[in-house]
Design a protein that fits this description.
Number of helices: 7
Distance between the termini: 46 Å
Helix content: 40-55%
Oligomer: single chain
Strand content: 15-25%
Shape: globular
């Protein structure tokens, strides 16, 4: 309905004015971490991919969904696994601008002070600019290329190509956030002091 309802809630350090509201925002952000809705079916994503790249990539499954995009595991024509990122259907610069204005109206109607209103509107403007940049996947690819050049220790996922705002990158080995959280919860059950400083 409004992309900024998600984005705003995911920012845990936003001062909403009361500890109750902050707690709600934190709980909401936590619940949204792996529950963003998908807008691309595998069939529709493959159709878009084929339209853009021909038979070069074959999608296997969705591996992640965020507020602005979905990422799919695919294989290239040589059988090598890659990840492909597609912006959600309906996410456009025009929608982002309209959603921003609607959210600012909510802020104006619900802020309890002029300072709170100015603070939240400033945050909204900053978030909106970030989302506009985020939906242009060439920005992500450029950032990844820079990171690859300057990173010496960590293995950085290398970009492969981008066309019609469909971003193809190397597949990174690892675990998803949900699995990591479940693992850390189990560790905390076994050893409650794990990770705490003495």
């Amino acid at each position: 309905e409004n992309i900024f309802a998600l984005k705003f809630a995911q920012i845990k350090d936003v001062n909403f004015g009361t500890s109750e509201a902050e707690g709600y925002a934190s709980r909401l952000a936590s619940s949204l971490k792996e529950n963003c809705p998908e807008t691309w079916t595998l069939e529709a994503a493959q159709e878009q991919l084929t339209k853009t790249f021909g038979q070069k990539y074959k999608i296997e499954r969705c591996v992640g969904t965020g507020t602005v995009a979905q990422t799919f595991l695919a294989k290239d024509e040589n059988g090598k696994e890659v990840c492909i990122k597609l912006i959600h259907k309906g996410i456009t610069v025009e929608k982002i601008s309209a959603d921003k204005e609607k959210f600012i109206e909510i802020i104006k109607a619900s802020a309890t002070s002029q300072n709170e209103k100015e603070f939240l509107i400033k945050n909204m403007e900053n978030i909106a600019q970030g989302v506009i940049e985020e939906v242009d996947l060439s920005n992500e690819m450029k950032a990844a290329e820079k990171l690859v050049k300057v990173t010496k220790q960590a293995q950085v996922v290398k970009p492969i190509e981008i066309k019609d705002n469909i971003y193809v990158m190397e597949k990174a080995n690892g675990v998803n956030l949900k699995s990591l959280n479940e693992f850390m919860a189990k560790i905390s059950e076994i050893s409650p002091d794990y990770g705490k400083k003495e």
